[in-house]
Design goal:
mainly alpha, Rossmann fold, Glutamyl-tRNA Synthetase, domain 2, 4 domains, three-stranded parallel beta sheet, three-stranded antiparallel beta sheet, 12 strands, elongated, binds glutamic acid
Length: 467
């Protein structure tokens, strides 16, 4: 095992990782974990590892792994390296041997039923249901007998929580660290069962594989959800038992729904895939994921560099961030409303939207997803069915249309003239004109939009013919 000294870590570029299990696609909860790590790496010029935690062989699939990569790419997050736990069994074997040699990993033979019975007994006696370490007392002969009965051992990590005097009896033993998000943290190893690191079928558990990987990939900072706080207490001891300096940890609060309830039941609807199907902008999703539950305002940012410069783990609040899909939709619209033409020009071209920056700036304030810019382009340049609310007014207005060329002063001059001639004003004037010209009763400012419609179409629409 490489031994990392604290000095070595501080001299190195930070290295972070995002470690999803490929048992599903990304959702707002783990998008948040991913983006916080990604921004940390970006801000500090560090590296970002994508690690696929596929120790659960039954539920992990390559299709999910590919789905996660696609989700990250869509969100604009790139990783420097990728690792997959199922490729690293040799390293886990080596590390497990080192722990056995150090007498920190020991074989246990209890079945699930025996353990559950024991826990019930402990609880009925008012004791905490902690594993009693009976297996530590087994002699070589006992073990041989158990193996001959056909039992295969699972392996537990012996937490460092006993003193010389008390022998096997766990004592309060505090593991502490200064959390990047939560400040000073403590976990009492004396209140925990020795964790199983290797199952009876020989497969390794995440608690262990994660530490071996974090050591081998020289991960300097682990940013993950606060549901891992207790794990951290255990994992710090595993790092130390393997002779490695533990990395820095930051545990962010978890997101909840607007109603304060856990998001877990609704995650399907809150997946990157469904955000994509809703045509939301990746940067709106990233802005929300990065800023929700922090002391920064949740505002849309068009570039990841802006989010990276704001990023500071100390700004992440301890209270859960409340996530509402409607707020993400509003944020998406706000992002589009301020996006410069250069950022969307290529996509507008694909959508068939012309008119360059002038058209984009005319319509961006009236769209909630980018595709709607194409709707407005069609309204400006293709046939629509005009809505004639006031035929006489529209016919008169058609006669009064100025001759070209048109610019943004045309609307004002023309409507002033229509007002003088017909006496119509305010909504009674503007609403019928808008309906006739666009077929909709709200939309972009007509002083900017009218020139894109042009005289010929405007005239036909006001006269109630398709145009
Ligand atoms: N696969 C773990 C999870 O998704 C990773 C936790 C960690 O970051 O260590 O919860």
């Amino acid at each position: 095992m490489p031994v990392l000294k604290p000095a070595a870590i501080s001299l190195m570029k930070p290295a972070v990782r995002f470690a999803p299990s490929p048992t599903g696609r990304l959702h707002i909860g783990n998008i948040r974990t991913a983006v916080l790590n990604f921004l940390f790496a970006l801000k500090h010029g560090g590296s970002f590892l994508l690690r696929l935690d596929d120790t659960d062989r039954e539920r992990s699939t390559e299709a999910f792994a590919q789905g996660i990569r696609d989700d990250l790419v869509w969100l604009g997050m790139r990783w420097d390296r990728e690792a997959r736990q199922s490729d690293r069994t040799d390293r886990y074997e080596e590390a497990a041997k080192a722990l056995v040699a150090a007498r920190r990993l020991y074989p246990c033979y209890e079945s699930e039923e025996e353990l559950s019975l024991r826990r019930k007994r402990q609880l009925s006696m008012g004791r905490p249901p902690i594993y009693d370490r009976a297996a530590l007392k087994l002699t070589a002969v006992d073990r041989q007998r158990l193996e001959e009965e056909g039992r295969r051992p699972h392996w537990r990590f012996r937490l460092d929580n006993t003193s010389e005097e008390t022998g096997l009896q766990p004592q309060p033993t505090i593991v502490s660290w200064n959390d990047m998000v939560r400040g000073d943290q403590t976990v009492d190893a004396g209140s925990l069962s020795d964790p199983v690191l290797i199952r009876a079928d020989g497969t390794y558990l995440y608690t262990f594989t994660s530490v071996v990987d974090d050591i081998d990939f020289a991960i300097s900072h682990i940013i993950r959800g606060e549901d891992h706080v207790t794990n951290t207490g255990v994992q710090i001891q595993i790092f130390e038992a393997l002779g490695a300096e533990p990395p820095a940890f930051g545990h962010h609060s978890l997101l909840v729904g607007a109603d304060g309830q856990a998001l877990s039941k609704r995650l399907g609807a809150l997946s990157a895939e469904s955000f994509r199907a809703m045509e939301l902008e990746p940067m709106a999703v990233l802005s929300m994921a990065a800023l929700l539950g922090t002391s920064d305002a949740v505002e849309p940012h068009g570039r990841v560099e802006e989010l990276a410069s704001l990023f500071d783990p100390a700004k992440i609040s301890m209270a859960p961030g409340r996530f509402a899909l409607e707020e993400l939709e509003v944020l998406n619209a706000k992002l589009l409303h301020k996006l410069p033409y250069a950022d969307v020009a290529a996509r507008l071209q694909v959508l068939g939207v012309g008119g360059a920056s002038a058209f984009w700036e005319t319509v961006r304030g009236n769209i909630s997803v980018l595709r709607e810019a194409a709707d407005w382009w069609r309204i400006a340049t293709s046939e629509i069915a005009p809505v004639i609310e006031h035929a006489a007014l529209c016919a008169r207005a058609a006669d009064l249309l100025p001759s070209g060329p048109w610019d943004e002063t045309t609307w004002g001059t023309w409507t002033a003239l229509v007002k003088d001639v017909t006496g119509a004003k305010g909504r009674a004037l503007f609403h019928p004109l808008r309906l006739a010209l666009t077929g909709r009763d709200s939309g972009p400012e007509l002083k900017h939009f009218l020139p894109f419609i042009g005289r010929e179409r405007a005239k036909a629409r006001l006269e109630g013919t398709v145009g």
